[in-house]
């Protein structure tokens, strides 16, 4: 399997898992609390485990069990970029299906949380101005897609880095499955 094929296959698998998790989040109701964030980042980590699997498979099947850090890192980065494209396009599809109302609903929820927390009129006015700026920026598709990409990018980079560091050692999870 060529490097390009590994990137596409494992990137698409990771991307499908990411889009499916977006669908689950929408069905169960998006929450912006710690549990909702934990669910989101956990599913990102699970999906991005395909970086590790893809790099290991390429190392073992194509390179005889030995891969250099740079090759492993670039391969993982490619898988991550394909997965990220799925994630961004999945979010854009969700946005289109909801008439691009996410930013307004998010801003309203944040302002309501301020009110419930007992914020002063001045604090609420400042928060409203900040949320109005957010809504305005989020209406720009390039800004929105960049923001969506940056949700996943740090985790993708970390998983790619750890995978490349671990798998550059030919004794780590060596092909054949026996202890080394």
Question: Could you name the key traits of this structure?
Answer:
elongated, 2 domains, 180 residues, mainly alpha
How would you characterize the overall build of this protein?
With 180 residues, this protein is mainly α. The chain has 2 domains: 3-98 and 152-167, no CATH class; 101-138. The protein contains 7 helices and no strands. It has helices at residues 3-28, 34-47, 49-62, 69-97, 102-116, 121-138, 141-167. Helix 1 (3-28) packs antiparallel against helix 3 (49-62). The longest helix has 29 residues, at 69-97. It is elongated, with a radius of gyration of 20 Å. It starts with a helix and ends in a 13-residue tail after the last helix.
Main sheet properties: none
What is the helix tally?
A: 7
- SSE series: HHHHHHH
Radius of gyration based on Cα positions = 20 Å
Number of domains: 2
The outline comes out as elongated
Arithmetic mean pLDDT? 90
Helix content: over 70%
Percentage of residues in DSSP E strands: under 5%
Structural category: mainly alpha
> What separation lies between the terminal Cα atoms?
26 Å
**How many strands in all?**
0
Care to give the gist of this entry?
By secondary structure, the chain is mostly helical. The protein has 7 helices and no strands.
Topology:
Elements: H1 3-28, H2 34-47, H3 49-62, H4 69-97, H5 102-116, H6 121-138, H7 141-167
Helix pairs in contact: 1-2, 1-3, 1-4, 3-4, 3-7, 4-7, 5-6
């Amino acid at each position: 399997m060529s490097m390009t094929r590994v990137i596409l296959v494992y990137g698409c698998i990771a991307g499908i898992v990411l889009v499916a998790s977006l669908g689950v989040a929408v069905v169960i109701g998006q929450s912006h609390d710690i549990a909702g964030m934990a669910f989101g980042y956990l599913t990102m980590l699970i999906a991005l485990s395909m970086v590790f699997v893809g790099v290991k498979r390429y190392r073992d099947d194509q390179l005889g069990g030995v891969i250099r850090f740079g090759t492993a890192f670039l391969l993982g980065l490619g898988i991550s970029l394909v997965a990220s494209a799925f994630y961004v396009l999945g979010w854009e599809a969700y946005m289109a299906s909801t008439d691009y109302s996410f930013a307004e609903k998010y801003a309203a929820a944040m302002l309501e949380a301020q009110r419930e927390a007992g914020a002063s009129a001045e604090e609420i006015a400042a928060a409203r101005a900040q949320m109005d700026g957010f809504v305005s920026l989020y209406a720009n598709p390039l800004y929105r897609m960049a923001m969506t990409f940056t949700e996943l990018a740090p985790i993708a980079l970390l998983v790619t880095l750890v995978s490349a560091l671990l798998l550059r050692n030919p004794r780590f999870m060596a092909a054949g499955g026996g202890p080394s």
